Amino acid sequence: MNEMKTKNLSFVILGGTGDLAKKKLIPSLFKLYRSDELGQFDVIGTSRKALSDSEYIRRVGTNINDQEGWDDFRRNIHFAKLNFYDSGDYRGLKEEMLGCSDNRLFYLATLPQHFDVITDNLAKHELVNERSKVLYEKPFGDDLSSAQELNDSIGDLFPENKIYRIDHYLDKELVGNLSIIRFSNSIVEPLLSSDFVDHVQIIASEDFGVEERGEFYDNYGAVKDFFQSHLLQLLSLVGMDSPDQLDARCIRDEKVKVLRNVKIQNTRLGQYRGYKEETGVAGDSETETLVAVEAEINNSRWDDVPFYLISGKNLVKKYAQIYIQFDQSGHETMVGEDGTVPNTFVTSIQPDRGIYFTINTKVPGRIETEPAKMEFCHACHHGPNTPSAYENLLVQAISGDQRSFVRYDEIEEQWKIVDGMDTPDPFIYEPGKVPGEISDFISGSDWHGLED
Predict the structure, then answer these.
(1) Is 168 a catalytic residue?
(2) Delimiting residues of CATH 3.40.50.720 domain(s) in the chain
(3) What is the mean predicted confidence (pLDDT) over 365-375?
């Protein structure tokens, strides 16, 4: 954790009684408090329904398991009634904040259709000052047109250095580690190109369905909920050239260059059996719960290297990784009939966190090879309780570091890719299994680890 401790902070959660506030934001702030990262602070939660401070604290404290220090922390939590569309409620919020720090973070933990009116009212009532930042939860828009309109309307009111568009995958520890491994190790970076790489797989599999998010998910689906944001961001991190510096501007400049050159070659969509019976889902829904994509990056670095991306619900296991398979060495005949396995470079994001290379080694006493892992185990080295993605994001937002947040042009390039995709009718697949419709998707290979 970096040195971001601040003497004063006001953290305002717009949509303060939702799942995100209860499951992620309040627990993350509490962990930062326990690790002495917050200093003096106030948390102000809002919702349309009037609540007392104690009622609000009771609602958002349900996901606090280890309560050591909770009694002290919750004294800094307050509540303000706020209907997003009622101008008078913003005046009430402003009054609530009179005794709080002017170092303000406004977190829009709500649906994107509310972003415009909230932003407009924050500006109109002068709640956003020189020291403020405004954080926008994904999804940011529904398509390219809506994302552009949203960027334009927000950009008219706030400068880009105050705008923090969230993609929580970007600050998972192992995703952040990927750039460091690439650009600080001379044995890695030169190998990541079409001269050496056979193909790349980016996998994000879940072993559960939509749960309580049926109504929301049915309006978005796997393409807009996961592919447009998380998978394309991971692709841009793998595909980017070395930035001049590891700062927000340079990293995001290089990611945009990648996204502008992404071409979709093949798409398959699926829907798990029983999805239409989920709460909040339309009985005749054609929304996809699985997306598999073959893409290419049309530049000199990655020309003709296929990138295979997949995200799906109700598959075999909860699993996320970036798998890079290198070309065969060309010397397989030297080591007997069995030959060698391809070398690989793997970033495991969840559930196991780590990075490893697969190489070929000699079997003792025989002129044969066997694969071996050269592995970095994150938990073994740093322990199991490293900061969560939301803790990292909040730390960076408080300190004004935008590296792990998405810039306006990244968002728009991602939506251009999605808007240009073919969207075939989804096939039906059985929960808990890898669908046969994607088992032959990768030429000459399997989805790594997904079918184990």
Answers:
(1) no
(2) 8-137
(3) 85
